[in-house]
Amino acid sequence: MPLLRSSIVFRSVYGRRFLATSATGGFKIPVIDFSRFRAATSTTEKQDTANEIVSAFKESGFVYLSNHGIPTETIRNTFHKSKEFFDLPEATKTKLAWEDPRANRGYVQIGRERVTQSADPNEIAALRSKAPDYKESMEIGRDWDSEWKNQWPQDSDLPVFKGTMLHFFQTCHDLHVEVMRSIALGLKLEPSFFDEKINEQCHNLRLLSYPPVSRSLLKNDGQARAGAHSDYGTLTLLFQDSVGGLEVQNPHTGAFVPATPIPGTIVVNVGDLLSRWSNDVLRSTLHRVVAPTTPAPSEMTPRRQSIAFFCNPNFNAEVSCLPNCSPPPKYPTVNAGDYIIGRLAVTYT
User: Fold this and answer.
1) Contact 252/27 with Cβ under 8 angstroms?
2) Total-model pTM
3) How far lies 85's CA from each of 80, 108, 161, 279, in Å?
């Protein structure tokens, strides 16, 4: 049954007004003002925002975070440098090619990755052959890693790219820590519960470019700019441009609902490992990127840029059901690094 997306509407939670996208069936992604958590001087003051975030993650697995503390100019400059990278000659980019799921660093050309929920390498290979993802990406990890090194373009090819991305990486980690503290508080844990489980910054900064592609091609069976999938870690911080195309699955109906870009916000969603930690109290929701909906669409989709910061636990962390999250556990204890590397290993060629 098709869903009709409403306009952006005002609703009220805990006596406060906030924006939400909605669709028939009651599905919504709330806009949550994070400044109230950041500026609060006591746990009691933080509690309302923490409750809003956890409530949204229980229902849809997604929020729009406003007043998050990352300056607009920082985001704009990172997008600018990302575009400059993807505008480099293909031969320059392929010198930095992604090589190993344990490193998860470097350039990924169009068609190499096929995101999906499947863990079967043969099934994924068939999907990639039939309907590859129409995107390219640049993967960046923590730069001080003693074993796995980032692959940076030469300064002569792209000045200050490295410095821009390392600053953004640290900025996103700092926000991740704050959001995880709000989640801990909303789950009735000590706010610092996750601090020592995420402090090694085993994250992945992914720059994404979706080149123009024929809309008719995206209508083929299984074809998308990025196929339906969940993310792997704790949270994803997604920075969108204005083009659109991100869709989130309504977990109650199975239909996909547009997550329309809202200026000044970051889309934040729950990943698999946080969902496992919470025994599925918090939802890791399927999402995809398709052709954007426009009033008078042309045959070719516009170019789309986004930046995803995939937040992960420390790779030595053991993820098991939190004692206050509806035992008995649904999942066995899993090592965070093994889980993420295992998912990556079958996703790429």
Assistant:
1) yes
2) 0.87
3) 9, 12, 8, 40
| Inter-residue contact 67 to 81 (CB < 8 Å) | no
Q: Tell me if residue 53 falls in helix, strand or coil.
A: helix
Largest CA distance in the chain: 56
Q: Taking a C-beta distance cutoff of 8 angstroms, is the pair 245, 21 a contact?
A: no
- Residue 229, token pair as written in the block: 């999938």
Mean pLDDT per 10-residue segment, the chain (349 residues): 33 33 65 97 94 97 98 98 97 95 92 52 47 82 95 97 98 98 97 97 96 68 67 97 92 91 97 97 92 68 92 97 88 96 80
CB atoms within 10 A of CB 29: 28
Residues 270 and 127: their CA atoms lie apart, in Å, by: 25
d(CA 173, CA 146): 19
End-to-end CA distance of the chain: 36
Q: 10 Å Cβ neighbour count for 4? A: 8
Which alpha helices (DSSP H) does the chain contain, by range? 35-38, 43-59, 72-86, 90-94, 121-130, 161-186, 195-198, 215-218, 272-277, 336-347
Domains of the chain: 9-347 (2.60.120.330)
Strands 265-270 and 62-66: antiparallel
In sequence order, the 6+-apart residues with CB closer than 8 A to the CB of 73 are none
